[in-house]
Amino acid sequence: MIYRILLLLLTTTAFTTGDPVHISMSIRCSPTNSVYCGVLYVYEVDYGASHDVIKKEEFCVDPALYKKDFSWDYSGGDASPQYEITYQLSHNCTSKGVYRCINPEPVDVWVFGEQKVHFDLNAYENGTLSACLPMY
């Protein structure tokens, strides 16, 4: 009986606390090397009303490489054994400076143990032809 309680306690603890996820973003604007701007949301997908925003950043960069490393420790946890991490990027890295929206499918990351996620993209002329809708 004690072993069952202990097993239940360990399982519950594992599902309610997550280990850190280290995220790195690299966004290039090739072939141009001009200044471009963007609004970036990195988030954990929740299937329901809202997502857990990990990072929101507005930026303009010159040279045309945006690079950022950060960590996320979701101590709230949920019932899933993995996180679904993705981003939404609204940017004007285009030949005419018009805004485009990039919102890829999420990457599955295990909750257990420290994890690393790397997003590397060339934003030039990529995405749907309009700015992204604000997340919130």
Automatic annotation (TrEMBL):
<keyword id="KW-0732">Signal</keyword>
<dbReference type="Pfam" id="PF05912">
    <property type="entry name" value="DUF870"/>
</dbReference>
<protein>
    <submittedName>
        <fullName>Uncharacterized protein</fullName>
    </submittedName>
</protein>
<feature type="signal peptide">
    <location>
        <begin position="1"/>
        <end position="18"/>
    </location>
</feature>
<dbReference type="InterPro" id="IPR008588">
    <property type="entry name" value="DUF870_CAE_spp"/>
</dbReference>
